[in-house]
Known about the structure:
This protein has 5 helices and 7 strands. It has helices spanning 13-42, 46-53, 60-87, 129-134, 159-193, and strands at 7-9, 90-93, 97-104, 108-115, 119-125, 136-143, 150-157.
Amino acid sequence: MDANDNIIVYPNTGKEFLKNLLSIFVIVIIIIGLLMFLQTQIGPDLVTDILDAFGVEVNMGMINLTLILMFFMVAAVLLLFNYMSIKNQRYLLLNNTLEFTGTKLLILSQKETIPFGNITRITFSKEGLLNKLLNCGNIKIEISGMNTPSVTLESVDNPDKLTEIIQQKVNQYNMQMQMQFQEQNKIEGIMKRF
């Protein structure tokens, strides 16, 4: 990648899916550990004894299976929703603008063009162990003079290098605008003499 080229950047959906899947796995392990702790401290028949007192017969195996299936269905829906929302994002770096294309809530199409002149600050983050291991992260671009105060490029590979390239493009654009301004002032100064 070169700062003079037009660059198309897509979020790395595979790495994002892996991070989310690992998060769900950790949550499952914590819940199982908590349930095992409660079962050893309180006893396995506490719930059935309470319900038996009211004349309600309960099959704890069926309740546990239902809860596990519901948890995995909710987790699968959340994983799919996250995957689909990040899969539709695209960032196009041109010579003087950054174009963001994506969807909100999987339905509403969103397109935003950000002139380099409006970019005030570019930072990247590789927060978390997985982002550091997978060499991916987010790039936050702060903007002035527009409705949106910032745009975040989510789950991109090599965010440090991409941040440098974006910064180079912004610097080239600002230098070009400065040179045009100086030339225009010189021309106006010459024209005023005549």
